[in-house]
Every structure is written in C-alpha cells, then in structure tokens.
Write a structure and sequence with these properties.
Elements: H1 6-9, H2 20-30, E1 36-37, H3 49-60, H4 73-87, E2 96-99, H5 101-113, E3 119-123, H6 130-136, E4 140-144, H7 156-166, E5 170-174, H8 186-198, E6 202-206, E7 231-236, E8 249-252, H9 255-267, H10 274-285, H11 287-309, E9 316-317, E10 325-329, H12 337-348, E11 350-351, E12 353-354, E13 365-369, H13 374-394
Parallel strand pairs: 1-11, 3-4, 3-5, 5-6, 6-7
Antiparallel strand pairs: 2-8, 7-8, 9-10, 10-13, 12-13
Helix pairs in contact: 3-10, 4-10, 5-6, 7-8, 11-13
InterPro entries: Aminotransferase_I/II_large (IPR004839), AspAT/PAT-like (IPR050596), NHTrfase_class1_PyrdxlP-BS (IPR004838), PyrdxlP-dep_Trfase (IPR015424), PyrdxlP-dep_Trfase_major (IPR015421)
Keywords: Aminotransferase, Pyridoxal phosphate, Pyruvate, Transferase
Protein name: Aminotransferase
C-alpha cells in the first residue's frame, strides 16, 4: 500500500501512546482473567436515566438530522450561563462552540492558537493525549517540567524561560489536574497569567474536572485581569454529568476566535448530533445538585483512600485536592512507574497507569482512578500497598 503520511505516523513521536497497561489489562480480561481496572477516568455510575430519556425523546421527536454546526443556540446559551455563574466572566453564546467532547475542543484550541511548526507548551504531568493532539494540529509539543516536592505546580520562572527560548505560541494547563489531582491556587495561576501576557501566549485551560474539587477552590484563568481575550477554555459533560460516551463538550473564549473555529468544525466534525445536544441541555438544566451527586462518590473514595494509605509508609499519596484520581509515589520500591505497573498487573491482576505515561516529571508514580465501588477499591489499595511493601523490602 502507499506510505502513510508523516503526520499520522509521527503522532506519538515514535514512542508509546501511554496506554500500554490499559491495552494489556483489556487483553487479559478478554482471555477471561479477573482484572481490577484502575486505569481510565470512566465514572462507574452510568448516565442518569432522566438524561437518557431526554436524549431518546429528542431523537424520536425527529432531531436526528444535521444540527447547526456551532451548537444549538439554547445549549450554547446554557453553557455560557454556566460559565458566567461559575467563573464570573460575562459569557454569551458567541463565546461558545459545542464540540464532540473535550478532546475535540483541545484539538480545535490548538488549531486556533498555533501555526504549523510552532511550539505549544504543556505542563507536566499532562494527560496522555496532549502531545499527540498538539502534533495532530501541526504544532510541536514542548513539556514544562514540574517538581513533585512543589506538588507538581508550575513555577513561573522556568515557564517564562522555556516560552522565550522556544518562541511558544500557546500554553496548555489543566486544573483540577489529571493525573495529579492538584488544584492550582490563585498565586500559581497569577504567575501563569503573567507569563502568558509577557510572552504573548494563548492560554488553553482544560477545566473538565471543575466540579470535582475536594479542597481549595477552582479558579479559571480566564477570570484573571487581561486573560479573557487570550484564554480558550475546554469543557465537557463527560466527568461532571457522567456522559463520557455521549461525546459532548465545548470550547469557550473570545468571540472572534470562536467564529473562526466554526469553519474548522464545518470541515471536520460538522457539529454534534442534535439529540445529544438536547440531552446535554437537559442535563445542564438540572443544576448543581446533579453535578454534586455525580462527584460525591469520588470525594468519598478519596477520603477512604487517604485512610488506607495513611496507615503505611511505603506508598505516598500526593495531595489529592480534585479530580477522580490518586497519584501515588512508589519510588520507595526502587521501581519505575512502568515497572511497578507491569509487575502489579502480572502478579496481582490490578491495572494502574504508569506515571511515565504523563511525562518525565511523573516518573516513579502511578495513577489510580477512583472508579470502583468502595469495597473493591479498598481491597485494591490494600493489595497495592502490600505489593509495594514487599518490593521495598527487596530493593
């Protein structure tokens, strides 16, 4: 066959896409093995039946044809109202583009921010798709390292230096953070905003976990002085409303940028099915009560995990202030995150994500998703700690 394009063949820069353990675990399950999966952020609660009823009613009512590409006006209005209420930044439908999930919004944001070959910065640890998404948009991903001793919070000084050295066009941040659970405090975001303005960067803010705050307060950098005109916010109903499979999200930002991105949507996704948008609109009209109900199990499991992990000294839990994950420091075992995850899956049939999947700053860590019932999660964590203790003694 003809050769594949360099764009496709180089998406992972010749390395792993970070999903190796996940694929291995799924293969073992397909062979009949009993595997405890703690890999992906898939809420164990399914989409609320009332939302599915709204989806079904819309589809059966005939909203199955092409929907308006930027998103149906009522949904864009609801998203804008939500952003205004939650961030304090006045937002209208002209500031919102409905997308097929947050992943599509990430791609659109980088297409808007970066010309081919330009540098797009991303803060480590980063979600595993970030580098490939940036390459797909034709830009060059450059990671900004962070230090576990600082809670993986970005330091403005090296950030400014890297931005200047690379001539970066954009910076991607994620708070609450996947994988670390860090919620960026106001001082950190102020430092990031200062760098973005000084270096004339687009700031792309992935805020899909904004309803999962266990400690502290979520602050959107779009709300900081001088940032509304240079910030693109990625949002989604996947985590806040347990609608992962519905693929419904948005990008919010300056009206001029969003108007231009309608052309991108016209030539790529051609919008989102109308019945899914109607279901999303219904979900948003249920208000914060539904969001809090969906977030509650993750808060409870985070507290449960802190009790279990606090009773031993080998596996260290990083501060988990938000999102549905635990980030575990397993360096006392002498293993890398990849080595630990491989050995844990082989011997215990427990699947976790290696820290190295999220960038070099996360080497020696593993990520655990809080997506199992409490009793099964507790059992898995106790087995992880016992496994780690055995490895630490042998190290």
């Amino acid at each position: 066959m003809p050769s594949l394009s360099s764009r496709i063949s180089s998406l992972n820069a010749g390395g792993s896409d970070g999903w190796g353990i996940f694929y291995k675990a799924r293969a073992l399950k397909a062979q009949g093995a009993a595997v405890i999966e703690l890999t992906i952020g898939e809420p164990d609660a399914r989409t609320d039946p009332a939302i599915l009823d709204a989806l079904s009613a819309s589809a059966r009512g005939g909203h199955t044809g092409y929907a308006v590409v930027p998103g149906i006006p009522a949904l864009r209005d609801a998203i804008a109202a939500r952003l205004t209420r939650r961030t304090g930044v006045p937002t209208t439908r002209d500031n919102v583009l409905v997308t097929p999930g947050g992943q599509s919004a990430l791609f659109a944001a980088h297409m808007a921010a970066c010309d081919p070959g330009q540098t797009a910065l991303m803060v480590e640890p980063y979600y595993v798709t970030y580098p490939g998404t940036i390459r797909t948009a034709g830009a060059r991903p450059v990671a900004v390292p962070t230090d576990p001793a600082r809670g993986f919070l970005p330091d403005p000084a090296p950030l400014a230096r890297i931005a200047a050295q690379t001539g970066a066009a954009s910076l991607l941040v994620n708070t609450p953070n996947n994988p670390t659970g860090a919620v960026y405090p106001a001082a950190t975001l102020a430092g990031i905003a200062e760098v973005a303005q000084a270096q004339d960067l687009w700031l792309i803010s992935d805020e899909v976990y904004d309803t999962q705050i266990w400690q502290g307060q979520h602050l959107s950098p779009r709300a900081l002085p001088g940032m509304a005109e240079r910030t693109l916010v990625v949002g989604s109903l996947s985590k806040s409303h347990a609608m992962t499979g519905s693929r419904i999200g948005w990008l919010a930002g300056p009206a001029e940028a969003l108007a231009a991105l309608v052309d991108l949507a016209t030539n790529t996704t051609y919008g989102v099915p109308g019945y899914i948008q109607d279901a999303a609109l219904f979900a948003l009209t249920q208000g914060p009560d539904l969001e809090q109900r969906i977030a509650a199990p993750f808060r409870r499991r985070r507290d449960l995990a802190r009790q279990i992990l606090g009773a031993q000294r080998v596996v260290r839990l990083m501060p988990s202030d938000g999102a549905m994950y635990l980030f575990l420091d397993i360096r006392a075992t002498g293993l890398s995150g990849e080595g630990f995850a491989e050995a844990l899956l082989d011997s215990q049939r427990i699947a976790v994500m290696p820290g190295e999947s999220f960038g070099p700053s996360a080497a020696g860590f593993v990520r655990v998703a809080l997506t199992l019932p409490d009793d099964l999660l507790a059992e898995a964590l106790q087995r992880i700690c016992s496994f780690a203790a055995g490895r630490a003694q042998a190290a």
